[in-house]
Design a protein that fits this description.
About 70% of the residues lie in helices and about 5% in strands. By secondary structure, it is α+β, with helices and mostly antiparallel strands. Belongs to the MscS (TC 1.A.23) family.
Length: about 800
Amino acid sequence: MALKRLSAFARQLALIALVSPLLSLFSIAPAWAFPGTGSATSASAVDAATAPISLSDALAQLKQMQFKQDSIKQQTSTATNSKDLDALAAATQQLSADVDKLRSQLVPLRTQVQAQLDVLGPAPASDVTPGTHAVARQRDSLTARKDQIDAVLKMADDQKSNLDILTAQFAKLHRGLLKNQLALRSSGIFSAQFWVPLLHRSPEDGQRLDAFDAQVRDMLRPVWTPGQRALTVLLLGATLAIWLGGRKLVQRGLTWVCLHWLPATRLRRSALALSTAIATLLATGIALQVFYLAVARHFELTPALSDLWDELTKLTLTCALISGLGRALLCTHHPSWRLPSLADPVARALRPFPSTLAALLLVSGTVEAINRIVDTSLSVTLLGRGIVSLVTALTIGAALLRANRVRSALAAAGEAPESHSTVAGLIHAGTALAIIVSLIALVIGYITVARFITYELVWFEIVLCSIYVLTQLNRDICASLFSAHLATGKQLKNLLGLDDKHLEQVQTVLSGIGTSLLMLLAVVALLTGGFGTTPADLINSFIGIIGGQRLKSLNIMPERITNAVIGLAVGIYLLRSVRRWLDKEFMPALGMDSGMRMSLITLFTNVGYVLLVLMTLSLLGVRWDSLAWIVSALSVGIGFGLQEIVKNFVSGLILLTERPVKVGDMISIAGVEGDIRRINVRATEIQLPDRSTMIVPNSQLISQNVRNVTMGDSTQGVATLVLTFPLDTDPEQVRDLLLDVYREHPAVLETPAPSVTFSQLTPDGITLSVTGYVGSPRIATSTKSDLLFAILKQLRAAGITLSNPRTLLVQNVPMKNDASHNA
């Protein structure tokens, strides 16, 4: 039985371990979806293991590399389009890789010379020992050789540094070119001039397109000869079969694995959604490779065709990701597997749009890529960008309108609306606004602006859907792996000696860490831009249109302002999300009381906002050495008018860290008693017994005497009464009477038992103190009142009087003989 359990545990653990790496594979876009991005790194890593090189060859290579670098700089001054800049940037990266390779070949040579010098040792003080002259000559020779190697290494490092600077300059040139393109205004889509290139192309465009068409024909000619035609048709058929049938086959296999190997928890739903997207992506990637064999197996691609293939690969896999994510999230065939809370009619209405958008993007994006590679005229380029923007905006807009129409129909039919968060509503509104802005830009002639908005919108949807699926998968993996009711959790409990509480804590911590990393990845992906630009570039372009030179003269930098605003908004959202996670999941899992939770959350929030302000100032480009006058002004302000605020703020931090009082404590200060409800930065809120709230500055809680009723290990209250009786009273009778009253009251605890103390004997009488414990200090006052009523009743029945009624909270009753005398 134990062996069977261990086998089941190992199988589930292995399966989850296989699913987990898909987080990195599927995060935003697959690494293998962009051919060539890792080729330079892998090539340099392989070349680094080559044998050392001679100094003369190294110097010759450095001179040749310097000549290539100068040539790149000369060509950069004449580059006018993105294609030329991309080619020069690629050449710079290759040259940088060659410098790294050369340096890696020189390092072993220097290590060898240094080892020989270490064997010879340092130069002796005198050369009187026979043979020292030969050793000295050898040492001098090795030292000179080491200096030469160091000089060559320094030259290589300098050249590497120059190449890095040149690469950064290429990025700036790209951004500058993009800004100029965004600011360009042409004819709108309703203008006949916009559609002229579709009907009539210029001679230059015709020559370039004909030359590119000739290259395509040269590529296809070898595979369409009589001896190769059958194999080409077979490979094209295999491409279509893999693309259509392979996806379904892979998806069925992954679905069977998820249903039969994974536990019957929410992990199945998230794993099924991920498997749907991966099946689409995997089938498309394999189909692309087969398609390449079908059309280019006997042809060495020209630079233009190689660029087209790279762009087509990126575009195809991106469109496959869009289609796969749409199929995974809508899940119309199995509504119970659907991750988002979408009504089934809404999901069925949206079903065709992801695939339609992917197909339109594939066609229009390919046309735009051809225009860029061929370097067509501006009118043709704008036509391609306008078509891409138009089909994207119309498709997404039609999806939003159809979803709203279906929701309105459901509401009219009396069905309950879908539950969605405020963030989902903001995303929906932002998407609609982006579509409207892009359509307006197309109408008034800002084609590149519209293209930028629509492409960024598509990238935003890809990132958002991917992060949503991965976040759900991360939570479900942690919940299933550390569940005390499943085999994995039980095995972990037995192997590590954990209990259910510890498993829940580990689950909460790991789930929170994974979610935070995924959110950070999403923020980085969104801010860096998915299509070679950032939102700040668009703002800069509009600022340039309005009056960029005037703003520059005022030293206002729109890019920094935009980054600061975006960083502040994202930071506030993340801070609130983390605070909500700490309050609702993490701290309750650790078993913290409400007071500790509130104190730590308040401290975390205060520190988080301070760091957020510092980050915003940093994004604005504020230099801390230029804030000296602000610090001086604050010092004067603190000295005169802000000292009380600062004192209360520091006192609040002391209260949150030392915790002499915490939220939920019952305290007494300046004759006022109540419960602490909130500790703010400046003051503390105390709720009084009459339900009113008293605001007490934090400094008073630090500087004054405060009675904390609920502080300590015990949460019990004390009900003590002090009563004075005449000297002729029997103290033992009174003691038994008081103890009986205390024992009969339901609020008085049996342990510790009530007790009576003979506290004082004076000419006025005897003083007895009776003490009993209650369950909470908050009921001590009401219990005292009940006890006094009961004691008064018993004293009347026993004919016992009190010595000095003026000192008591209750009024004494006259004796029976006095009553008869008065009668």
